[in-house]
Fold:
Amino acid sequence: MLSLLFKLFITFLKIGLFTFGGGYAMIPLITQEVFNNAWVENTDILIDWIAIAESTPGPFAVNIATFIGYEQAGIIGAIAATLGVMVPSFVIILMIAKAFSKFSTNIYVRGFLKGVRPVVPGIILSVGIMFILKYVFEVENFQFGNFNIEIKSLIIFTVIFVLSRLWKKAHPVYLVAIAGVLGILLFGVI
Structure:
């Protein structure tokens, strides 16, 4: 049990330490780690965990770490994983806050941050494309001409996309709730 708690802590410490750009940018590393550690059986379960973590209040990284830790080792596992993912950000933010005036004018720090900025949307975009391919077009490993369209998922995706463009001030909670209701109607009722 102690070795599992240590592994949860170290794994999420590494995820928290080496991910720039927030929760969505963590998804590729989280995916790799949960499969390498055999904490999840298939992509569908991981996607469900990601959906739950994103749909609940609080930061995505903390939610997903807490959920995976709890699934592996109960409450103490949730604490270990959550502390692991939080410690790097906490320490780095403390260091930056303490020396912000020096960092903000340092040419190397500014260059690093300018270099990292375009990577973050790219990572988020790649995760979004992976989700669309997997859940709208039912593609596990993308190859041109080798996919089916999941019509119900495509309908939900299209409705939420259109709503988000037309209803500019729509709170994400409303869009998630609408998507959930559509999911219940399309997948549970019809």
Remarks:
- Residues 150-190 form one domain.
- Residues 137 and 149 are 4 Å apart (CA to CA).
- The chain is about 80% helix and 0% strand.
